[in-house]
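Tip: read the tokens left to right.
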């Protein structure tokens, strides 16, 4: 590994792509596994936790790592595709060491760990060598002073800490996509996960919850107080919130719905009134809906919303008043490609595709799939028998329901022994 840098900081390593000897990307770095024995001996780095296809996490021994540079990690040989399971003697550097309260006896400095560095020893093993510490903020300073010290000069790295914070781990999670953050939270020890959940803001936690397996969603929500759980559900998309509430005990579900804002709860209750494997049960009640007097410029401004998924941004649904589902009469859709070709001042009613067939809320999952495939669509309107728009089914809604139960937590590749 002669071309690797002398020292690598773990927080900068997380998220880097991992390449095989042929130059093909096989995964991303998600954490580091170390054997922490004492505070006087530098811990040996056992390997990387890598996320590979299917969002599976595997163990990559450091003996398989041939090079680490500023933007890539290179490996040699075949990777063992068995799911990573942490052993009692192993410590996750990102997941368990960040935010630990430590002390430097020589200087009297006390602070929290915000990064850890590793480097190669003379025997070519990688070891944890330095610890980056941040003191608490003092006076008018927004951030406390930082220090980088040798591993052996720090106390508190091996002791179990019941009240370990989550500030620096939260900072790392906030830089990840929700699906990646969900994977990291899923693999954290229970007490560490609880600290992270408590520290995440409601909007971010809602985004992450939508990407977690159902059992994790239920477990996290049941450990929150009802007021915060209701706030989280309000931040989630109504269809995901409805799916999650449906997995809760009936009395808990009703209590949370009562605590939610009436408008948010009404959307969720309406979705829950449809059978789960139907267009009504899968749809989102919040597509982009405009009146016929809106302009092309108005429509483009709405679909630019970064919070919209690509599928929801592909179509604008044009209806008579009222524009909240169930709307007034549904007039048709305007495709994003058509909108981009029209003058901005043109009325959106002039760019309508009124020939698109609508789905009924009782349409089965197979009928929804056939409809999207037949017309090469990524989304389709759901309209009741009176011509009122109820919502829209997107291809990602469909896949969520068509994939096997627990797909978020399943592997795509074959397991072999670690």
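Filled-in amino acids:
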């Amino acid at each position: 590994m002669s071309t690797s840098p002398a020292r690598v900081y773990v927080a900068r390593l997380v998220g880097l792509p991992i390449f095989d000897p042929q130059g093909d990307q096989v995964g991303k770095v998600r954490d580091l596994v170390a054997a922490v024995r004492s505070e006087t001996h530098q811990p040996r780095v056992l390997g990387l936790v890598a996320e590979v296809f299917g969002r599976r996490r595997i163990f990559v021994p450091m003996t398989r790592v041939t090079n680490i540079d500023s933007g890539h990690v290179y490996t040699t040989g075949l990777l063992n595709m068995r799911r990573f399971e942490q052993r009692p003697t192993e410590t996750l550097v990102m997941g368990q060491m960040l935010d630990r309260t430590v002390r430097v006896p020589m200087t009297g400095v006390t602070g929290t760990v915000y990064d850890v560095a590793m480097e190669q020893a003379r025997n070519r093993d990688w070891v944890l060598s330095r610890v980056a510490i941040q003191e608490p903020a003092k006076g008018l300073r927004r951030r406390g002073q930082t220090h980088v010290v040798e591993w052996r000069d720090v106390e508190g790295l091996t002791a179990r800490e019941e009240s370990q914070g989550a500030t620096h781990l939260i900072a790392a999670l906030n830089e990840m996509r929700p699906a990646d953050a969900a994977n990291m939270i899923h693999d954290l020890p229970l007490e560490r996960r609880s600290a992270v959940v408590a520290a995440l803001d409601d909007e971010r936690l809602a985004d992450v919850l939508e990407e977690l397996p159902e059992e994790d969603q239920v477990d996290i929500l049941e450990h929150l107080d009802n007021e915060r759980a209701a706030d989280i559900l309000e931040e989630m998309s109504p269809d995901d919130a409805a799916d999650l509430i449906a997995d809760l005990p009936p009395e808990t579900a009703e209590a949370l719905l009562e605590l939610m804002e009436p408008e948010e709860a009404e959307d969720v209750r309406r979705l829950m009134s449809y059978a789960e494997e139907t267009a009504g049960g899968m749809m989102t009640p919040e597509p982009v809906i405009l009146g016929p007097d809106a302009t092309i410029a108005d429509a483009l401004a709405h679909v630019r919303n970064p919070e919209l998924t690509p599928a929801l941004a592909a179509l604008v649904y044009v209806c008579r008043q009222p524009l909240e589902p169930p709307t007034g009469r549904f007039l048709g859709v305007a495709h994003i490609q058509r909108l981009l070709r029209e003058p901005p001042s043109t009325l959106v009613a002039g760019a309508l595709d009124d020939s698109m067939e609508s789905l009924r809320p009782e349409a089965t999952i197979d009928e929804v799939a056939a409809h999207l495939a037949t017309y090469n669509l990524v989304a389709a309107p759901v309209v009741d028998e009176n011509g009122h728009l109820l919502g829209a089914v997107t291809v990602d809604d469909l896949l969520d329901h068509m994939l096997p139960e627990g797909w978020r937590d399943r592997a795509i590749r074959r397991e072999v022994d670690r």
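Residues 411-418 have pLDDT under 50 and may be disordered. The first strand starts at residue 7 and ends at 9.
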